[in-house]
Design a protein that fits this description.
Length: about 800
Amino acid sequence: MKPFNHKILISLLLLIVLLLFKKLTYAQGPLAVVPAQYKQYCNNMHPEKMYVHTDKNFYLAGELLWFKIYNVDGALYQPADLSKIAYVEILDKDNKPVMQTKIPLTKGKGNGSFFLPVSVNSGNYKLRAYTNWMKNFSAAFYFEKPVTIVNTQKALTSSPVDTITHYQVVFLPEGGNLVNGITTKVAFKVTDRFGKGMDCKGWVLSQHNDTLLSFQSFRFGMGHFMFTPNSAQPAKAVISLANGRTIIQNLPAAYEQGYVMQLSEETAGSIKVNITSKPASSQPVYLFVHSHQVMQVTEKQTITNGVATFLIDKNKLAEGVSTFTVFNDRQQPVCERLYFKKPQQILSVAANSNSVQYGNRKRVALSVNTQHANVPAGSPANLSVAVYRIDTLQTIDPNSVLSYLWLTSELAGNIESPAYYFSTDNDELKEATDNLLLVHGWRKFDWDSILTDKRPVFEYVPEFDGHIISCQVKNNDHTVAAGSTTDAWLSIPGIPLQFYNSRASDKGKIFFDVRDYYGQNEIIIQTDNTDSNAHVDVMNPFSEKYSDALLPPFSLPVVAQNSLNEQSVGMQVLNTYKADKLSQFAVPVIDTTPFYGKPTNVYKLDDYVRFTTMEEVLREYVPEVAIRRYGGQLHLKVFDYDAHDFYPNDPLILLDGVKVDNNILLGFDPLKVNKLEVVTNNYIKGEFIYPGIVNFTTYHGDMESLKLDSRAVILDYEGLQLKRNFYSPVYKTEQQASSRLPDFRNLLYWEPDVQTDATGKATVEFFTGDIKGKYVAVLQGMDDAGYAGSYYFTFDVTNK
């Protein structure tokens, strides 16, 4: 008889315990299941949010567009240190990229610029930004904002006149659905084709054209009315716009059975949620409220006489947008809506100038102060500051880092004047906010995926350390070459030495985690794949998914011609006289030490007798490297001091950081080589172990006349953007102020990295130019705790 296997018994007992636990959990109903599965789902998400502060919104071709990036944890709203690279693009109306760049992030912050080329056409464009990790989610989660670019060097071509005016009308019952016989709040919004709200009034008619009620918009084309459907046929609405246009549209059809949700604020600091069901039953319903990936409220009520009422203490809710979801006893979500709790987690930003009016070429001094409620004495924060002239073309941007993170990024569609919803609390604001949430609310979570424990599959990984260059091994017919065991190497010739190795996945994907690669250079990718029917494609690092947001129509008011002429002259003068100042870049501080650290020995070839072949050089004065012949070929071998013998396998041979084989190296002209470095120990780099390293460097570090295998991929590749220095002239002395060079700058000042001290104070200084007018100073930023805020003020520049 065989001995009893105790491991089998333990496994069976564990299985029984798990089954009993699962059965017990489900027996407790949604109150236990939904929060647990929601938490498990959120543990895999780690969302990021990104906001971009641009210096202004209107530009001329030939100008610089400056920007500052704030990347935050999507749940905590604190600066995120997950991704180290941001991708920023300017897209035209067809989502074709006009400009693209990669920006390094440090503790969730980064900054950069675009020089807008004179080849760009006049029009409205999207500026969008995201991380590699954000590419796993919908493009609706990317940051986007419209910017206008006018090319004064090209004739303005007017778009064909659209003689048909398009309007969109939506009716959205609170909670999701209309149910016959149950009174429901119905929100509505009327917009033009570009999402701008239209003021209106209207009437709801029965199927017999009897007037049931009237309504009118409140703010930004939105409003609501109370409606009790009593027919299977949908009621219709007749809407009259301010321009005299009439629109007729059906309301959503009403169901015979279902649930209706109604949320209202009570004066005692609580929120009342009424759930009405038809038919009336005595079954329980469950209310779940979640925000910032945390379940805030889980409650159960039994329906009595067709109604269940929940009273929720507002103090239990997180600041910002919360999602209220109602489940029935069968664990099905039946109603959902959003609620906004105005955040108190606000950074107070203020700035005082030394005057409200300045002459030409005068000093402007700003005293900046940042604080929040928890630290009344002042709180250190990081800010970006822009100072520019406002006129008929350039207005003050209504968006801010505060309104975007807490509201705009949580909602679908175009949110007009988001700062309005952060103004003083009153009944009017509460009504407008409620309409906004009913109209622009969306399901942020797919409950089916959560409840069925469907784990998300992520194609893109966070770039924890640097940019990831992704490649795909493909067959010559462009199909994916899966199942490959290809080893691959990527080199970026030059100084510092940049060499990376990787191995293809079973799906033929290759990833190179590249560090500190700035500017444009040539990259070289080599593999050990000998299949002549396969090749390596370098994948586009920029997202190829796009949101459905439409750009507003492009037009220039006739009265703006003078402003356009002034800005055009100013841009041309600046580019003519200060072109060198506009093209100064900061040198990034990076480690130039080779990846292998300090070599065992370094040979500068000019210190020795020069030989005409590489074989003679190695044989004569590099004792750590031997040349052996076998198989009819010469091979380099590095000496292993631990074994007191040469390694049996070939070392890693590099020429200017590019992997080469023995034949290529020995055939290379040694007179072009400046130095040779040898590493004699076994070197481990990722999954690879190299029996020594021999690195040859030419005088220019550019692989001069090196001929590689025809299967090597050689292409120009844009690395991280080099940081451009902002030019701002100084007029501290009389001689400087009396310079005859004109100063027609529209943008007086841009500083993406103003850091207030421990007491929340900082000073900013710049000088006015020669153009009179009204200027605005805009400050935006946040502290390490995630408190965000903004501030702006105006001042005048005269000719005195």
